[in-house]
Amino acid sequence: MSEKAKMADYEKASKWMNDNWPNCKKLDVNWTMEKYDFPEYVRQWIKETWIKESDEYGGVYRKGMNIDKVIIN
After folding, report:
1. Under a CB-based contact definition with an 8 Å cutoff, are residues 13 and 45 in contact?
2. 49 and 10 in contact (C-beta within 8 Å)?
3. In this structure, what are the phi and psi dihedrals at residue 53, rounded to the nearest 5 degrees?
4. Which of 32, 35, 22, 72 is nearest to 47 (CA)?
5. Is the pTM higher than 0.85?
6. CB neighbours of 27 closer than 8 A, spacing ≥ 6?
7. Domains of the chain, residue spans
8. How far apart are CA 12 and CA 28, in angstroms?
9. Which pLDDT tens digits describe the chain residue by residue (73 residues)?
């Protein structure tokens, strides 16, 4: 996937979360993502940009800045 396409998916995923789960700060894969049928591009965005707290329930993620993922130009 090109960098431009990835950024477009990230913007789309961020918009989907803001439209559907605006107050979500923490979630897990097995219960929240599966039960509420999160689109795959949103799942991928969360896994790549949110902070993984544990492997419980398929992975627990919280919103926040992950220093390892920050790109400085």
Report:
1. yes
2. yes
3. -90, -35
4. 32
5. no
6. 21, 33, 46, 60, 61
7. 3-69
8. 20
9. 788 887 888 999 999 999 999 999 999 999 999 999 999 999 999 999 999 999 999 999 999 865 555 555 5
